[in-house]
Amino acid sequence: MAAEMAQVDAVIHRRLASEVALINQISHYIVSAGGKRIRPLLVLLFARALDFDGPERFEMAATVEFIHTATLLHDDVVDESDLRRGRKTANAIFGNAASVLVGDFLYSRAFQMMVSVNRLRVLDVLADATNVIAEGEVLQLLNMHDPDISIEAYLRVIRYKTAKLFEASARTGAVLAGVSAPLEDSCASYGRCLGTAFQLIDDLLDYEGATAQLGKNVGDDLREGKPTMPLLLAMQHGSSTQRDLIRHAIEHGEVERLPEIIEIVRSTGALEATRQAARDEANKARAHLSSLPSSQFKEALLYLCAQSVERSS
């Protein structure tokens, strides 16, 4: 898909253009950092798997990347992050105010692009996704520093904040292809399950990965007081002493004893249990592809299921 992704990059750079120099500077800084670009890839793969090859697919793939980039700009301000994709975050360089406002610019530009393809269903899907993502951000904020949230509440945040845009990206490819409602729903379900698996692994890697591989600081989730699945499971299966240590760290956002907490997460089996939960979601995603015709694009979607779970960055 390299040639198709190059077309998406061309749309991204063209659509980033603004007469305001600071918007250009910050937008290009964060977009040029790269990233996995899975969301735009899903738009392209589902469109091609369903025999749609119109140029609108490039515009919509760029649109979902703009929505994602806007959430990153806002996320890094809320989380007070200073490292993403191995580089200083935009807010660390340009300040919080500029990052928030450029994030708003990217959101509004994304909506201009949605309208440009003249498909009301596309606008409906992506507008709904943008709203749900915002709800997920607020839900996560409410859960910060709370060690008593349930696994279900944690998964709800994932489905709103991360999986929803995966779902919308897959659905958008299907909408462009004009498929039946049941097939469109299957594509969306694939995206939702894949996005859930992807975020579970992201949360796992905060306790298993290395800063150089991750492109962000190990332990950032704990510093921000995020009660993710590895911590919640470690508290369920650990001793009272281990549970108290993790509770205190979540409540206060402490990383001074991070090595001890990483060892607890490993020794209690919380890391492997989290990875297994991700595998289960990836298997669900794989099952949702059964109604797609055989093609190299379907094979790529199947490959993404495995790759999202077994990655180390």
TrEMBL record:
Cross-referenced InterPro entries: Isoprenoid_synthase_dom_sf, Polyprenyl_synt, Polyprenyl_synt_CS
Gene3D superfamilies: Farnesyl Diphosphate Synthase (1.10.600.10)
Cofactor(s) this protein cannot do without: Mg(2+)
Alphabetically ordered keywords of this record: Magnesium, Metal-binding, Transferase
UniProt GO BP: isoprenoid biosynthetic process
Enzyme category, top tier: transferase
Classification via CDD domains: Trans_IPPS_HT (cd00685)
E.C. designation(s): 2.5.1.90
Transmembrane segments annotated in the record for this chain: none
SUPFAM superfamilies the record matches: Terpenoid synthases
GO terms for MF: all-trans-octaprenyl-diphosphate synthase activity; metal ion binding
The reaction(s) this protein catalyses: 5 isopentenyl diphosphate + (2E,6E)-farnesyl diphosphate = all-trans-octaprenyl diphosphate + 5 diphosphate
Transmembrane helix recorded as keyword: no
Family: Belongs to the FPP/GGPP synthase family.
Function in brief: Supplies octaprenyl diphosphate, the precursor for the side chain of the isoprenoid quinones ubiquinone and menaquinone.
Name of the protein described by the UniProt record: Octaprenyl diphosphate synthase
Organism of derivation: Leptothrix cholodnii (strain ATCC 51168 / LMG 8142 / SP-6)
